[in-house]
Amino acid sequence: MKVLTFSLLFSISSLLLITGCLKKVEPRHDAALEKAKKEATAAAGDFMKSLKEILVREMKEKGPEGAFDVCSDTAQKFTAFYSKEKGMEIHRVAYMNRNPLNLPDQAETMWMKEIENMMKEKSFNRDTVLYRVVKSGRSRMLHLVKPIFLAPECVVCHGTEDQIPEAVMKKINEKYPEDKARNFQPGELRGLVTVRLKI
User: Fold this and answer.
1) pLDDT tens digits for 69-97?
2) Going by C-beta distance under 8 Å and a sequence separation of 6 or more, which residues neighbour residue 193?
3) How many helices and strands, by DSSP H and E, does the chain display?
């Protein structure tokens, strides 16, 4: 019994001694990552704002068919121009896609599902961005996404059959026979703006 008591006391003393020697390690502040996140978030927001301005302008001048042309052609050209100007890679992606070029990768698909679940649970902040850091050797790349929610004016291309004008529906069926980007309601998650930026 004495031996057991002594062993127990020795173990407790050793644990206290070891615990006393341990220091709390605070995570190192990554200034480069924070700077990249700030730049990417701002670029994603500015990109969507600029694209929406083009869309609204074309819709006023040419009607719903003009809006379709913006989404199918102008948007692709503007995306390439904006990416080059900002020095980062920007895309729009959605798994309920219209353009085959806009399919998400595995991480982006996971993020879209995560956002959908958060929206169902009413725990999602629309200003939230999701990101990961991809490492390759000594280089790092930030991959950041910001959600795209369907705006009311976008139902003329992405709403129900009753909301999409016949002329627009014809263009969709001709150009995108495997289209999945219909039957959305305003406010629903349409896709993601995805940004890749070297840190």
Assistant:
1) 888 888 889 999 999 999 999 999 999 99
2) 44, 47, 48, 90, 91, 92, 145, 146, 147, 148
3) 7, 4
